[in-house]
Design a protein that fits this description.
The chain is of the alpha/beta class. It has a single domain, classed as Rossmann fold (3-Layer(aba) Sandwich), CATH 3.40.50.620. It has four helices and five strands. Helix 3 runs parallel beside helix 4. The longest helix is centred in the middle third of the chain and has 24 residues. It is globular. About 5% of the residues have low confidence.
Length: about 140
């Protein structure tokens, strides 16, 4: 049924649960998995060398989010690829889903954003509202 699954992660507990479920789904359906993490854009007014240092720090932080998520997915039969993108998470996830012809998007219901206490996180709500494929939210 699902052959190409996108997992959006942000380092939250909900995202790690989503990663475990994505691994289970991938193994049962022999699906490929794209694991995506995003970081907020770095303002260009920082100038050099501050701009490059800020970008490097955000890339390192995103890489630190990807590694536990990949471990939580575990070994799968299909191909697992990772992407780190700059920009608002919902927009980046929707863009990757369209470009990669994703069959399913999996993500946590609440992340580490400003609206931590909301019933449905703002990023997951945007993805559900605009996705062209099924979205599975995990809490």
């Amino acid at each position: 049924m699902f052959k190409n699954i996108l997992l959006g992660v942000d380092g939250s507990d909900h995202a790690l649960k989503a990663a475990q479920l994505t691994g289970d789904l991938s193994r049962s359906m022999h699906a490929d998995v794209w694991v995506v993490a995003c970081f907020e854009p770095v303002p260009a007014y920082l100038g050099q060398p501050n701009l490059q240092e800020a970008i490097s720090a955000r890339l390192a932080q995103a890489d630190g989010i990807l590694k536990p998520a990949v471990e939580a997915v575990g070994k799968i039969d299909g191909v697992m690829k990772t992407e780190i993108l700059e920009g608002p998470p919902a927009e980046a996830i929707l863009s990757v889903a369209e470009v990669r012809n994703v069959d399913l998007i999996v993500m946590g219901t609440r992340g580490l954003g400003r609206l931590k206490g909301a019933l449905l996180g703002s990023q997951s709500q945007k993805v559900v509202s605009h996705a062209n494929c099924p979205v599975l939210l995990v809490r």
